[in-house]
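Q: Here's a chain of 181 amino acids. Please give me its 3D structure as tokens.
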Amino acid sequence: MTQGLLTAVNPRAGISSTYHLNTILGSMETLLREVAGPDVELVIERGSDVPDLTGAPALIEQVILNLVLNARDALNGRGRVVITTSALCLNRPDAESPAALHAILAVWNNGPGMDQQTQDRAFDPFFTTKSEKRGTGLGLTTIREIVTRHGGDVRIYVARPGTTVTVILPTHRTGPAEPHS
């Protein structure tokens, strides 16, 4: 269901190419600041070692936008949102295989944080804590669908106050990242 929805909403969704997470963030920065609103301090910290990725850049833009919208809503319009990018080498389950390089996108907000019941249902389609007119409950569901389509994973970390949603996107490389110019 979601895959058809994503393609219908974003006609560029199926286009696969090489992209850089920091470049996408840079091109979206003005929009993200507008979406966050005047009473939300938006901080973007770009890691220098973030690897190039292959996939649909338009869908990654959608992930970033949804994460910032969710963070803003968690703050009720006032607070702090921090977006960070970095690289991470993860060991593969097969000890014989080399570690795989991943790009990490994390969005943190200093809101009250999710309770356990909300965390347990956060990725359920149509589940929302927002009022009827403020959300559909598809934000995190859509994020997970896009990230999974890219071979990645999404994780939620809560340290009340505050919530971090971390997106882990694989590259096709092994070993440590080389600095991106």
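Q: Can you summarize the key feature?
A: The first helix runs from residue 2 to 9.
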